[in-house]
Give the backbone structure.
Amino acid sequence: MSPPNGPHANAPDRPSSQRRRDALPRLLRRRGDGQLWRERLFHLFCAAVAWSGLVILVVLLFHVTRVGWPVLSWKFLTSPPSRFPHRAGIYPALMGTLWLIGLTTLFTVPVGVGAAIYLEEFATPSRWNRFIELNIANLAGVPSIIYGVLGLGVFVRWMHLGRSVLAGALTMSLLILPVVIIAAREAIRAVPDSIRQGAFALGATRWQAVRDHVLPSALPGILTGIILSIARAIGETAPLITIGALTYVVFVPESPLDRFTVLPIQIYNWASDSRRPFHDLAGAAIVVLLAVLLTVNAVAVWIRHRFEKYRMR
Amino acid sequence: MNQSPPVEKDAPAVPVLQVQELTIRYGDKVAVDRVSLDIPETKITAIIGPSGCGKSTLLRALNRMNDYIEGLTMQGRVLYRGVDLYAKDVDPVQVRRRIGMVFQKPNPFPKSIYKNIAWGLAINGIRDGVPQRVERALQQAALWDEVKDRLHDSALALSGGQQQRLCIARALALEPEVLLMDEPCSALDPISTARIEDLLFQLRDTYTIVIVTHNMQQAARVSDYTAFLDGGHLVEFGPTEQVFTRPKEKRTEDYVTGRFG
């Protein structure tokens, strides 16, 4: 082996592989310090962006918790709102939110997952199906207030459901369905086709393959989509105000046709009050809302974990 | 294992599958061009040919696995024991129960070893003696001794070769008459390949096997009959020994001797 740039390096009759090898040390050399610095700077920038999001969140949480913590008590959770801050609680709003989560999940999961299964597994690429797909993608980008107006027109007035928690849940379902469908489709599409082929080769019908192999494999992805969507629904206010969810409710919905309010509306109501004690109530309600969100997430993670274990058995 | 039916080695081979003037197109592109071929009973038939010659497409036409491919059209007939597989009243699900398939890449379900086999039985309505059937299938696929103590572990923890034998066991558990294999060893190392080939020798008396392979030596080693496909045409079909040593066609000779593309 001759040294790099040795006497033979430029000899015309050297085989090209030898010439490449001679040039190697030069090729591997770093091209100036500028490249390294740019690399480090970019790294630093990315880290800063990632951390700043987290830091802002932590600061907000800290602030809200500090304000709301002293107010939080069992009585706060179980009392209706009141004109007097020391008596006010969030019971109706909390229950309204739980009703809304339950009903919305009930409507969204079967319809959303069913639509995704149909579009991914059964639909043939026709003009009509392309039209449906395009519309779902577009609907995912429609502002939530529009859904509120739609809900008011269709569910509250036309279907005579009134300003009930049922009408609210249906409106919320419409709002999050496109996102659920899109997420579920992505998850189903990510299941390798070899699994379906293997099932078909054993004499499985499309439905058997989907039920026993495709859906279980896609479940974690589908659940993630559902959780994110439900979380969005929990935080939404605009469409519910539009359909007429009340801002001051002292009772708890006992059936889907009862009137209701939800935590975000209650929070908005208190936060916009000019009196300081109500701001503390808003802080406490925010803590409760976050707790509800985290609980929903935790339940989903648990289901997911359980299902993954079941799948391996 | 004493379940293979008595086979007279010298009896004239009865065709199980008959391909008649079969043409398959992907859109406008012709993948299989007027192929006619009789697959003899309880023999191993190899389909060889260069990449893209239509081997896999032809194989998948034999148990209607092409049904799910969009834009694919067919002309001609495929007869299974005289019945047209593509007749209107034929259920593709029943076809695949009798004509099983093993794929190029091992594709066990992400479930336990046991469930991989039991699932095929369950969807076909077989409820009796499932554990015994699972054991027998695993023994037939020469996998039993390696997995008998961990039947309830994930199939994905097996090696590639073991996974492929599991896929063979999964197909055998349904007691099909025909087993189609689409390059079953192309993703495996030589040792696993040798084990699968040993397995083929054990299965040849019981099952009719059609194997697509890129590997000429493999075709020569394991098969009784060989079909050589090129550009969608069936160039030559005959006993393997004749195709490899005294091919009738110049193109076959060039291919089997490696003087081709």
Observations:
- The interface with chain A takes residues 63, 65, 68, 70, 93-94, 96-97, 100-103, 105, 107-112, 115, 119-120, 123-124, 152, 154, 167, 170-171, 174 of chain B (CB under 8 Å).
